[in-house]
Design brief:
Chain lengths: 262, 220
């Protein structure tokens, strides 16, 4: 690191403190990790089960996010929809909403007596609360905005000049979308999907409120970690390490975008 | 070079009530196939707006635009023919290539572009050696040649060139001029330019535009 001559020492000190603050909890986790018995801990049924539920729920949620979020991001970026600011505010709301509130809202919307849930049960015999599908709904609810915001931002940054040009070459709107917009959007879609998946994987509040904490069905890694913290701290640390490893695995491939290098 | 479709003269007509933003347009101009009409005039006269309007990239707020005898924009969203149905090619001033595609795929982007047409354009504009390269590897001059080739490959009835050789090196400028100067089998072309050499060397006619009006199209 070379220090520019005009960098005040006090700013550097505060920046270093901030880095320490962010790194300290991770270091503490690593320091307390039961390294020798880690493999046995990770082989435990409840850990394997929670990992399975977490992967199933978060990957399914990521798939739904991709299918729902891509058209939504495109519409927000390119179409002059009425009340666009309001629509965007509603889309971003789950990002700032406490997840427990989100879970409660989902319960009143999709619960067995909820606004839509009662009809889902009556007409299609579909019950979402306290099921794996419910955990997927909760994870999708909190993760979708991360994807939409990322992809919409990329669409706005690149502008629509190339799409306009493609249309003058005789390409229909669907062809333009398929041959120009989407191929150029792949990096942003990947970054948005990684963020959304990480958010879905770490989801806690909305899941426990809407889908409960049922082993093998809705008990994801964060819920299992919270559960283990009371009775078996070593298992909680092992579960936390799994989540930490997965989070790093998501962050590293997208480092060019989120950890800009010079 | 070969051309797939028989070409007809293209009549461009904007009645005096045609308005885009603050600009009122009054244009009546017929361009023959193979003919190149240079559109000249001061900055702000509406030359680039005229081209974008013809290509369908900006919409009339009022009035109407007829192209080849058909109304393509009547000032309403419903009465506007979209760009991909107009057969109007457009080469903008700025560098606009599909950077996720190779040079050959750029030239062959249009659904109208046949492999034979793409091949002959790559040769005519000396782009053969770049065919499998990405646009990021092209110089400014090469990129603009790709843009011209791509527009021609789409077999437009009307080709719009917005200062295509501005800021190009001498060699690229010469190549584009040589291609545009060979008017056989070329579409009716409108060339917006500030370059008197380009006007003298390429234009069959000059249309002078002032404040949205084409006031004269004397033969050169």
């Amino acid at each position: 690191m070379t220090r520019p001559p005009n960098a005040p020492r006090s700013v550097l000190v505060v920046a270093a403190l901030a880095v320490a603050f962010l790194t300290l909890p991770v270091l503490a986790l690593l320091q307390r990790a039961p390294w020798s018995g880690l493999v046995d801990l990770l082989r435990r049924r409840e850990v394997v089960e929670a990992l399975g539920v977490s992967l199933l729920v978060s990957l399914t949620a990521a798939g739904i996010v991709l299918v729902l979020g891509t058209p939504l991001a495109w519409v927000l970026a390119r179409v002059d929809v009425p009340f666009r600011r309001l629509v965007r505010a509603l889309v971003v709301l789950p990002m700032v909403l406490p997840p427990v509130v989100g879970g409660t809202a989902l319960l009143f919307a999709l619960g067995r007596r909820g606004l839509v849930g009662q009809w889902l049960e009556r007409w299609f015999d579909v019950t979402l609360p306290f099921t794996t599908a419910g955990a997927v709904v909760a994870a999708t609810f909190v993760a979708l905005p991360f994807y939409v915001v990322t992809v919409e931002g990329a669409l706005r940054t690149t502008g629509d000049h190339l799409e306009q040009l493609a249309s003058t070459l005789g390409a229909s709107p669907l062809t333009v979308l398929r041959r120009v917009t989407l191929p150029r959007l792949v990096p942003a879609m990947g970054a948005g999907l990684a963020l959304a998946w990480a958010r879905a994987l770490g989801e806690f509040g909305a899941t426990i409120t809407f889908a409960g904490n049922l082993p093998g069905r809705t008990r994801t890694l964060p819920l299992a970690t919270f559960q283990a913290l009371e009775s078996d701290p070593e298992a909680a640390i092992a579960l936390s390490l799994v989540l930490l490893a997965v989070s790093l695995a998501v962050l590293l491939p997208t480092r060019d975008r989120w950890l800009p290098t010079r | 070079m070969t051309s797939a479709a028989p070409m007809n003269p293209v009549a461009v007509s904007l009645d005096g009530r045609a308005v885009v933003g603050d600009l009122r347009l009054d244009v009546a101009l017929t361009v023959e196939p193979g003919e190149l009409v240079a559109v000249v005039g001061p900055n702000g006269a509406g030359k680039s707006t005229l081209l974008r309007l013809l290509a369908g990239l900006v919409a009339l707020d009022a009035g109407s635009l007829a192209l080849g005898g058909h109304i393509v924009d009547d000032g309403t969203a419903r009465g506007r023919i979209p760009p991909h149905e107009r057969r109007v090619g457009w080469v903008p001033q700025e560098r606009l290539l599909f950077d996720h595609l190779t040079v050959a795929a750029n030239v062959g982007f249009s659904p109208e572009a046949t492999p034979a047409r793409v091949d002959s354009l790559l040769d005519a504009l000396d782009l053969r050696h770049l065919a499998d390269h990405r646009p990021a590897e092209c110089s400014g001059g090469q990129a603009q040649r790709v843009a011209v080739a791509r527009a021609l490959a789409a077999e437009p009835d009307l080709l719009l060139l917005d200062e295509p050789s501005t800021a190009l090196d001498a060699e690229s400028r010469q190549r584009i001029h040589a291609l545009l100067g060979d008017r056989d089998h070329q579409p009716a072309t409108l060339l917006v330019t500030h370059d008197p050499v380009e006007v003298a060397g390429l234009a069959d006619r000059v249309a002078e535009m002032t404040a949205g009006r084409i006031i004269s199209t004397p033969p050169t």
